[in-house]
Amino acid sequence: MDSYLDTVDSDWYRQRASGALICVLAAFFILLVRLYYLQIIEGDEFRRLSENNCARLQGIPPARGLIFDRNGVLMVENRPCFNVSIVPGEAKDSKRVVFKLAELLGVAPESLFTKLIEARRVPSFKPILLRRDVSRDAVAIIEAHKLDLPGVLITVDPMRHYIEGSRGSHLIGYLSEISSEELKSGCFPDNRVGDFVGKFGVEKAYEPYLHGKRGKQQIEVNALGQITRVLKTEEAVSGKNIYLTLDVGLQRKAEALLAGKVGTAVAMDPSNGHILAMASSPAFDPNAFVEGMTYDSWNDLTSNQFRPMENKAIQGQYPPGSIYKIVTAMAGLEEGVITEQTRIFCPGYYRYGDRTFRCWKRGGHGFMNVIDALAQSCDVFFYQVGEKLGVDRLAKYAKACGLGSPTGIVLDREARGLVPTSRWKLSRLGMLWQGGETLSVAIGQGFNLVTPIQMLSLISAVANGGTRYKPLVVRRIESSDGSLVKEQVPVPIGRLPASEKTLQIIMKGLLNAVNKPTGTGWNAHIPGVNVAGKTGTAQVVGMEEDNEKKSVESQRLDFRDHSWFISFAPAEDPRIAVTVLVEHGGHGSRTAAPLSREMIKAYLKNDLELASSSAEFDLALAQLE
Q: Active-site residue among 85, 94, 169, 322?
């Protein structure tokens, strides 16, 4: 009996042990399966989540390169700004956090949700910029409510600041937030959503130099997203510094002279193509683009009839008026149609077929040679020269002078202008060229269109003996430690189609235009400086004779002529060439010439003061003797 009971107990214990073993093995099997699922199947995801719960890789935006004028005057810098971002993966309830943040900042929640929607494809562990450049008070409020705002970050980033405001804005340009199209283009590999990039002017043209290289920082954060320590840092590399060819003093003068006018004033060093000033009026403040511009503000800028966003120096296209007579004189002399001794009588009009073409001087100029005709801007003289040349020969010289094609300046959206030919009219309008149209072209009217930068290039070439230089806006590029990265050298792009003798004849005419009381450019005369120049009055619309006799002020603004003046000085050793264009400013002699005079005086101020001191010394010495 006992042995039987022992056998039963033994079987019972064996069965219980086997059941327990099965349960243990089953438990271990379930654990193994779960471990396999967590570590093998979902391992990458949980590894990512784990790492981002304790460590995060943060980008460090680089400081953008500074911009100086040619003399080292700082024009564009960076200032610190506080930006508010959110990491959706750490916010838990993003909707609640954003509503709370909007309440604390006093802004509409929709503006913050818009940022989240735009960045919906950004991984949840990456920060999304919600608000840029908040105040220090706003920073203090957010920090005080940090526990209620999980995932919200405040970073201090460099922000662009244009010290001179609107001054030089068309040349320097502006920044704006990078678009999705630009990010997809592959041209901005180091940028991300929320970054600012150059959109216009030098800021855009030299973006690769100015941008710098983004840095990286690996940080450890707690469950609230607060930084506990920095694990590793790869410092950002600042952008390169740009030294413009611009003279900020001359730029200030040019913009002051254009105040209240619509037009442009641009100056160049004739010896190398350096742009010394480029003013376009009205202007815009580039700070508005980086600080945040409302839709209404943008609409006001783009719908303004005076086009403040247009760089009129390179984008504006205008009939040249009488400044084109330089081209007509050059073509006539080179083609042997006229010589320095050729004299043409001007009675105040010229009859061609059944039409009468008038001279600006009703009583006529009498007998004129080419020098006198340039100085006094005699229309009748150039009507007859143009008639003998024909439109196609005129076009040949105009194109060789750089008209009808871009100058190659690095700034984008440069206009081409228009040099009409008989073939152009036939193909464009389906009409044959008429002889009377050549007379209009010869004095800069008709289909002619030029840009101020083209005419500046032309007058600079006349000044330096015939070499056309590419306009340069950057003098050199340096790294943040001051080492030279790149230095711009003069770039010749062609020569004027004129001999030295022809250029000397034209020079005499331009000198007489400014330095003789009978010259149309007498208002640009500067005692002690030989200024050479040419006035231009470009008709905008054809008007009846009675209407033309009205004063400029009594005419409709949009019917008034454009006012031109191109010049250089000193004539014997040119250091500055200037082109001034005032839209609907009336006669070039009255409006544009005085502006040009003041720009030249401002740039040559030291020379004029030295010459004045020398003259006073000579006078005092003579009195002593």
A: 322
